User: What shape does this take?
Amino acid sequence: MNRRKKIIKKLQKKDKKANAKIHKSNKPAYVSKAEREKLAEQENSEDQNTQPEDEQM
Assistant: This one.
């Protein structure tokens, strides 16, 4: 009985790993704090560049 149980457990573990590869997570990729700050600075600089053009119209 123990031998059979061990074999079944190994096969279930293998199936679980294969199933996990098929179903990828929809979670967005991690962005570090420093990277978020860089992106925010770029957005601010782009906003500052576009504001004077809007005021002229």
Remarks:
- The chain has a mean pLDDT of 87.
